[in-house]
Amino acid sequence: MAVAVGNCCFSVLTSSVKFRCSASTQRRFATLHGRSNSINDRLNKARGPSSCSGKSDCKKEAACKKELRGKAKDGRCYLYAEGYKGSADTAKTQSAGYKFGMQRKDKIELQYDLKDRQVLCSQFQVESGNLQDAAFLNAVVKVYCTHTAPDYSLPWQKQRQYTSTGSAFMIGDGKLLTNAHCVEHDTQVKVKRRGDDTKYVAKVLARGVDCDIALLSVESKEFWKEAEPLYLGHLPRLQDSVTVVGYPLGGDTISVTKGVVSRIEVTSYAHGSSDLLGIQIDAAINPGNSGGPAFNDQGECIGVAFQVYRSEEVENIGYVIPTTVVSHFLNDYERNRKYTGFPCLGVLLQKLENPALRACLKVQSNEGVLVRRVEPTSDAHNVLKEGDVIVSFDDVHVGCEGTVPFRSNERIAFRYLISQKFAGDVAELGIIRAGEFMKVKVVLNPRVHLVPYHIDGGQPSYLIIAGLVFTPLSEPLIDEECEDSIGLKLLAKARYSLARFKGEQIVILSQVLANEVNIGYEDMSNQQVLKLNGTQIKNIHHLAHLVDSCKDKYLVFEFEDNYIAVLERETASTASSSILKGYGIPSERSSDLLEPYVDSPEDNVAVDKGSSDSPVSNLEIGLDGLLWA
């Protein structure tokens, strides 16, 4: 099963995934071996010769049922390191940052604090090269998940369930960490300890889609008997040895691979389509390794394995979520009793490398980035203006290439500072406006996506009116329908348009269930509906409200390109029940649309300003000199 995305081609096979990418700029990284006194060498001695049975843990039939595609913003192709039944899964990623600002210290003993808790490395040391007795291996468990994904094309039902395997590890207080994509659309999650035949039911407490981390809990006391949780270590250095532990495909028992840290930078997280700090390693990461820990030379857990980059032009590139990102996720959950997400500034920036450009903007020094555009839904929209130059963030100077100092002699993308904050935090920006320096404060919040990458609550909204099926446009729907059937105009809006207010959606007519009442409209599909009886539609809930409150004789739907569909209101209402019965549909609308609609005056003001028909251009997104913060 081959699917082309951008310049990458994904071929989903029964037990492997092949990629063909044209990313000629990617460099090859040679495998570097760790020091002779490292934990990796001791693992080798203890392990001895081994062979792969070639036996897959999964059934072939489920492989082609699941197509999760991911292309990060940097053009690279990613693969989820999760063991699906018969296939591997592709991913979408996020970015990281360290702990920043106030962090609550409760009595809840989650062992993840990087500053105040001394890492107990002694319990992880492998004595005399005896890998079998290594305590840290016993903290790594295998995850068995049964998934039931929504059917976005037929939103009133779900797809056929499938199963996958992944990895997780204990962090104490009855909790485990794994990847969010390992338990996506879960209906049942079970975990099994090393050397145990019993599978224990686990519950998903929090799921961070943007950072691809999930927090699990297991209530069984038997599962935690004699368990020693892992403690999170510090950010590693380049060329530090790294050991990845998990349960990849190719066998049933625990697997250990080794390598070194190749690079640390802001990375595209394929699962959440976000940019966070990531650790690039050359240790082998395979389907099923997702959610497993990575250890340094001293036995400290330095992160969570989650994705790999595969193409014909590179090899041995795997990615680990660093403990700084993991700590941010856990602190967020502890502070709010739920996960709120990483914040963003909400501006499109341009580098200021050209001296003439800096002189024109009256920027005296070789620093700063130009504000090209501000998202209407961000707090920065009330503070920043197009043409402002951001020269500092919380008194940290921003270079003309959009980078800031990182550790002793490194630099990293400006987005890194933002990712250290929590939702609702305030950042102080130093800006130059018309040659004058000033400081402004901006509240940071998670980004509002006009077309979401993931659906909150799992099941998409829908509304059926006389056989016309309306639903919000989403990335999963685009993936399911295929880009060709969606059309270039909708794709352009999905990729580049900005939400004018919170809650705005692109509502489309996904299909028409043929009936006498809708004769002539049967071939309509995947078209955006703009107005009902002259009123501009804000979202699917607003459309349902307009239909319910309509007293006119006709329902007049206005679509893109001035296409109109008209239904007689009373006839449409009478025909709806027979159409639903004939197609075996339980309800004319999703359960969330049964709630009363609450209109917002702020939304009306945004709608009156006009449609967001000037999307961010392809060039703006694609050029190296422009980046979203």
UniProtKB/TrEMBL annotation:
Signal peptide: none annotated. Keywords: Hydrolase, Protease, Serine protease. This is Protease Do-like 2, chloroplastic isoform X1. InterPro entries: DEGP_PDZ, DEGP_PDZ_sf, PDZ_sf, Peptidase_S1_PA, Peptidase_S1_PA_chymotrypsin, Peptidase_S1C. Residues 451-592 form the Protease Do-like PDZ domain. It comes from the Eukaryota. Belongs to the peptidase S1C family. The gene is LOC107426073. SUPFAM superfamilies: PDZ domain-like, Trypsin-like serine proteases. It holds the Pfam family Trypsin_2. CDD domains: cpPDZ_Deg_HtrA-like (cd06779).
